[in-house]
Specification:
Layout: E1 6-9, E2 12-15, H1 16-30, H2 34-42, H3 45-55, E3 64-68, H4 74-83, E4 88-93, H5 96-108, E5 115-117, E6 130-136, H6 145-154, E7 156-167, H7 175-194, H8 197-208, H9 213-222, E8 225-233, E9 238-245
Parallel strand pairs: 3-4, 3-6, 4-5, 6-7
Antiparallel strand pairs: 1-2, 7-9, 8-9
Bound molecules: S-adenosylmethionine.
The site of S-adenosylmethionine has 20 residues, from α1.
Length: 246
């Protein structure tokens, strides 16, 4: 009898195919209130974390940028303002509901970007194409993180950079208060705003089982990136990892 390969879904161990389905259910469920929840849960701080990411990206007029797991399009919008008419920003995500919200939101703000529904593990783009690839709060939801990192590296041009913005390991003395906030407060806010506390429980659990700063740095190096470094933000609640393709 063949044994299904398993992976994490938060604290649960599930078959790999099961994870992709359950991640899709989470984002189908929260898509409509996703932006509001981001502001509430982080007290607006996700805007600063994203602004720092943009500032470190080296993206300028004329750059080609790929926003992987771009969701409702915060990074895509900021990049679109930077690259101007001579540049290119692709908003991509595996989830149709998130992408539809992102596309409508960008259109309402006057930006008609190319949009593609695709899995980060199989990107429909040529080798060596983008100056910058970003993935914000998306990597921990992916089933094969190594494959996704290799794929994002493949589509980068030599000299281009991959930026991974993700929840990470918080400074130890703050862990008890952060745990209380994550497991007692966030699911309650999620329950009130989206009527789906389970999705927000998954969010907190998925952060705990995500690789810490140094492990992720090693994974990016193994994917073929060089000069990998990371920047902790808000005591390590979030870290931005950046690496370059040689
Ligand atoms: N980047 C946006 C942001 O920072 O607000 C959205 C982040 S949201 C927490 C995570 C996103 O990852 C969801 O939109 C989800 O659909 C997407 N995602 C999960 N697995 C994916 C995969 N394998 N490939 C592409 N996107 C994926």
């Amino acid at each position: 009898m063949t044994q299904d390969k398993t992976t994490h879904f938060g604290y649960e161990t599930v078959a790999e195919q099961e994870k992709a389905r359950r991640v899709r259910d989470v984002f189908d469920s929260v898509a409509g209130r996703y932006d509001l929840m981001n502001d509430l849960m982080s007290a607006g701080m996700h805007r600063l974390w994203k602004a720092f990411t943009i500032a470190r990206s080296g993206v300028r007029e004329g750059s080609r940028v790929l926003d992987v797991a771009g969701g409702t399009g915060d990074l895509s919008l900021a990049f679109a303002k930077r690259v101007g008419k001579s540049g290119q920003v692709w908003l991509t995500d595996i989830n149709n509901a998130m992408l539809a919200h992102g596309r409508d939101r960008l259109t309402n703000k006057g930006y008609m970007l190319p949009v593609a529904q695709c899995d980060a593990e199989r990107l429909p783009f040529p080798d060596d194409w983008f100056d910058c690839v970003t993935v914000a709060f998306g990597l921990r939801n992916m089933t094969h993180k190594d494959a996704a990192l290799r794929e994002m590296t493949r589509v980068l041009r030599p000299g281009g950079c991959l930026m991974v913005l993700e929840f990470s390991q918080v400074w130890k003395p703050l862990a008890p208060i952060y745990d209380f906030y994550s497991f007692q407060v966030i699911p309650r806010i999620g329950g009130m705003v989206t009527r789906d506390p389970d999705s927000y429980r998954y969010l907190s659990e998925s952060i705990r089982v995500h690789p810490d700063q140094d492990t992720l740095k090693g994974m990016m190096e193994a994917a073929g990136l060089s000069r990998v470094e990371y920047f902790n933000m808000t005591f390590g609640v979030v870290a931005l990892h950046r690496g370059y393709k040689l």
